[in-house]
Specification:
Blueprint: H1 2-22, H2 25-37, H3 52-63, H4 69-74, H5 76-97, H6 102-115, H7 125-143
């Protein structure tokens, strides 16, 4: 029984590593840049148009300190660092939920970004246009990786 348990644990670890490997840091950076390019102009913060509460929550969680929305907006490198952690976790999670379909994972992640609900990526015309634009930007960035980092 003990060997059986060890085998099952090892399989889960290998599957987890495989999913991590499928969604590389380059792909996460491409998604974050795609979200920046696809951001709708609004009254939110930074080039990514983020709600103030998310900025304080995410900075506390991922940097271990709270930064203000103004600090976030003034420092794109810090903003990108926070977003790559947050969105990397989310993209990898959506990759699993999509049956390891990268396109669907990007659409689901973009839907979460806009609506808070990953499954809504084609729920209404406005959201569908947004998620498809994010996917298009993501694919273009991966075709020309030098576009990924913008400071």
């Amino acid at each position: 029984m003990n060997n059986y348990f060890k085998t099952i644990c090892c399989l889960f670890i290998l599957i987890s590593i495989n999913v991590q490997a499928q969604i590389s840091d380059t792909k996460v950076a491409a998604l974050v840049e795609a979200l920046r390019l696809g951001a709708m102009d609004g009254k939110l913060y930074s080039e990514w148009q983020i709600k103030p509460q998310n900025i304080t929550d995410w900075s506390t969680r991922y940097l271990g300190k709270t930064i203000t929305p103004e600090e976030f907006a003034a420092n794109p490198a810090v903003a990108r660092q926070i977003l790559e952690i947050k969105m990397g976790n989310l993209l990898r999670e959506q990759y699993k939920f999509s049956g390891q379909d990268e396109t669907i994972a990007v659409l689901r992640t973009a839907s979460w970004w806009m609506s808070g609900i990953p499954e809504n990526y084609n729920a209404n015309p406005k959201l569908e246009v947004f998620t498809q634009n994010i996917l298009k930007f993501y694919q273009e960035i991966l075709e020309t990786p030098k576009k990924v980092i913008k400071d």
